[in-house]
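Example 3.2
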Amino acid sequence: MTGKFATASALRLLFFTILLAGHGFAQAPVTGEPQATTPAAQPPAAQQPAAQQPAAQQTSGDQEASDQESLRRKKPKDYKNWNYNVGLGANLDGGTTKTFVRGGGGVATAGVARNANKYFGLRADFIFEDLPLRDSSLVLASAGSASSYLLALTLDPVINIPVTKLWGGYVLFGPGFYHRFGTLNSDTAVPGSPCNPFFEWWSACGNTSIPLSGSFVTANQNEFGYNIGGGVTRKVPSGVEIYLEYRLTHGSANTTTTDTRPITLGVRW
């Protein structure tokens, strides 16, 4: 009996041992089998492109800004920094000058303008005008003939008015310096005689009579004043502009004045 009991106990112990060993083997991982990876281990790899995105956006933004800057640099200006003009024309008389000077005297001009943009600039002009005396003035001067001229320097703000690609206009106004001079030829006026209106305008009377020195046959008068005017322009295929300009100029000194109305036709480039 004892032997049978021992044998039965040994068999039960062996059975439980086999069961425990089988259960442990079932829970242990099989060697060489790939283990499944969990998504929680992948966020760093998945976020790596997101970390590179700002750099890519910055590169794209820099390239776009560079392209825009390049386009701004390459865009041509629609105006010239400097303009030059020359013109010829004739003079109309006005004011007191009209009493002693007849119209039709020749005019020559030359100028330069510095432009701030396509609309505004600053223009300086030199103007030469012939002021032929009327026959009635020669009678008052007791002269057979005479020559009379005006030199002017003007500095004007100029406003350009583009109308079309071919047509435009401009206005200008500003101060001016005027120098009027002339000579009487074959003059028979008696020195010391009372001054008449012509010699007063001629600027030859020191007081109330013609100078005894005889210097009245020549005249030199410096005057300050203003001018205002405008013009119409037409661009030709070469890019040069033809212009027609009208001005009113006024200068004064002491009690005399000089008024002219030059009309010029010229070119500017």
